[in-house]
């Protein structure tokens, strides 16, 4: 079963998260297939840029709670997105939750339709947005991020732009991205790669400094009794025991 769709047009490789029946949750299998597709795109001289998008009404619901990936796998994928020598552009027309926001943070440019919604839901199931903080904390507004991390509230595309999670939003996300992709096609590949290195240097410093600790934190929290209660409550569609 293929979990990542691949198409190409005028040097732009589009990779689509394609598990809509699971709301494109980040399973071990999906992460592995996406990592392989990114490796192929990075090595292919015919690829000038990568668009990361989705099928269905959800970009990604975050970690697959029935089959969560190892924290190391998510850490590795996020770093791969940041280090890829081609620009990566996120195209969102649906909902983004938890780990899905880490994917947006690791992309170089991100745009969404006005109907998209966002939420850091980790605290509501008893964990923390640990690994996804590696690309997000250097790029997003710290005060806005504090509110959304701590409350798990849902917010819209305009707030996501203000927070720094998105580059732009609009009624028609393809119209928003058309000039972006045309601009990338005009740019020299070597210049794009070097410019991306300039832009991601601070993010990679965060990976070098904090990846081991945040990966260990994520593993500890996901294996805790609190997380087991939170994930069970979510799957059973009830409030966890700590709600007052």
Low-confidence stretches: none
Q: How is the biggest beta sheet arranged? A: 6 strands, mixed
- Radius of gyration computed on alpha carbons: 17 Å
Figure out the total of helices.
Answer: 9
Helix content: 40-55%
By CATH's scheme, which homologous superfamily applies? 2-enoyl-CoA Hydratase, Chain A, domain 1
**Secondary-structure arrangement, i.e. CATH architecture:** Alpha-Beta Complex
Provide the structure class. alpha/beta
From the spread of the alpha carbons, the general shape counts as: globular
Walk across the major sheet and give the strand order: 1-2-3-5-7-10
CATH topology category name: 2-enoyl-CoA Hydratase, Chain A, domain 1
| CATH top-level class | Alpha Beta
The overall average pLDDT, rounded, is 97
Kindly report how far apart the N and C termini lie.
42 Å
Number of domains: 1
Number of strands: 10
């Amino acid at each position: 079963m293929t979990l990542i769709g691949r198409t190409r047009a005028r040097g732009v490789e589009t990779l689509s998260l394609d598990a809509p029946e699971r709301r494109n949750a980040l399973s071990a299998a999906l992460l592995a297939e996406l990592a392989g597709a990114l490796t192929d795109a990075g090595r292919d001289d015919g690829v000038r840029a990568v668009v990361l998008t989705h099928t269905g009404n959800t970009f990604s619901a975050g970690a697959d709670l029935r089959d969560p990936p190892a924290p190391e796998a998510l850490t590795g994928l996020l770093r791969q997105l940041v280090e890829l020598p081609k620009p990566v552009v996120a195209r969102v027309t649906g909902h983004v939750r938890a780990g899905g926001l880490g994917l947006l943070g690791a992309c170089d440019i991100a745009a969404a339709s006005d109907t998209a919604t966002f939420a850091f839901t980790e605290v509501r199931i008893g964990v923390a947005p640990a690994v996804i903080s590696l690309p997000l904390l250097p790029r997003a507004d710290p005060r806005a991020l504090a509110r959304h991390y701590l409350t798990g509230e849902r917010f819209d595309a305009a707030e996501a732009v203000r927070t720094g999670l998105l580059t732009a939003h609009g009624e028609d996300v393809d119209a928003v991205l058309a000039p972006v992709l045309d601009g990338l096609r005009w740019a020299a590949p070597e210049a794009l790669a070097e410019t991306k290195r300039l832009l991601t240097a601070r993010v990679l410093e965060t990976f070098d400094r904090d990846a081991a600790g945040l990966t260990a934190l994520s593993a500890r929290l996901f294996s805790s009794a609190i997380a087991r209660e939170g994930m069970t409550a979510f799957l059973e569609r009830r409030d966890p025991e700590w709600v007052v």
